[in-house]
Amino acid sequence: MAYISNGVEYGLHCLLYLVARADEQVEANVRDLAELQGVSVEYLAKLFTKLAKAGLVVAAEGARGGFQLARPADRINFQDVVLAIDGPKPLFDCQEIRTRCAVFGDQAPRWATRGRCSIHQVMLEVEERMRQELAAHTLASLATQVAGKAPASFGIQIETWLKDRKQHRPTR
């Protein structure tokens, strides 16, 4: 099982579509984002509920409303998204295997159990570095990276597709 869920990947892709150029706000409906990503509306709605609860997106008003980023893209990092969607789960769950060595019999010696497990300590350090690295990457930096790879027309195609969907969405 992956440490970081597929939900984080879908969440980041959807948030990427909400990153605006210049000073404009981009908003999108969960139904449209689900269709854009090829996933169920229910699945994305659960992700967006978590993202909203974490203060990363806000619901836009009105019958044709959707979601938009709650703060600038340079102030939302990958770690924010991971925590919002997956929660604060540890990278490693130490099972204290060191206490069950067959040569110890029924009781592990004090030297074997003193302090934190050495393997666990390494895993805690790795987890901390991973969290720092996730925090170093923002939606804005992701958008810049994607823009550098994709043709300029791609961003325009996405914007046009979302705007067209919004204009043709029925009001209630």
User: Oligomeric state of the chains?
Assistant: single chain
The CATH homologous superfamily of the domain at 6-87 and 138-167 is named: Winged helix-like DNA-binding domain superfamily/Winged helix DNA-binding domain
The name CATH uses for the topology of the domain at 6-87 and 138-167 is: Arc Repressor Mutant, subunit A
Largest pleated sheet: 2 strands, antiparallel
| DSSP helical segment count | 8
CATH architecture of the domain at 6-87 and 138-167: Orthogonal Bundle
Order of helices and strands: HHHEEHHHHH
Alpha carbon gap, first and last residue: 42 Å
Query: In CATH, what is the class of the domain at 6-87 and 138-167?
Result: Mainly Alpha
State mean pLDDT (0 to 100 scale): 90
Describe this structure in words.
A two-stranded antiparallel sheet has the order 1-2. Helix 1 (6-17) packs across helix 4 (78-86) and helix 2 (30-37) crosses helix 3. The mean pLDDT is 90. The protein is elongated. It has a domain at 6-87 and 138-167: Winged helix-like DNA-binding domain superfamily/Winged helix DNA-binding domain (Arc Repressor Mutant, subunit A, Orthogonal Bundle). With 172 residues, it is mostly helical. A hairpin with a 7-residue loop joins strand 1 (57-59) and strand 2 (67-69). It has helices spanning 6-17, 30-37, 41-53, 78-86, 110-113, 118-136, 139-149, 152-167; strands at residues 57-59, 67-69.
Give keywords.
8 helices, mainly alpha, single chain, Arc Repressor Mutant, subunit A, elongated, 172 residues
Write the SSE topology.
Elements lengths: L5 H12 L12 H8 L3 H13 L3 E3 L7 E3 L8 H9 L23 H4 L4 H19 L2 H11 L2 H16 L5
Antiparallel strand pairs: 1-2
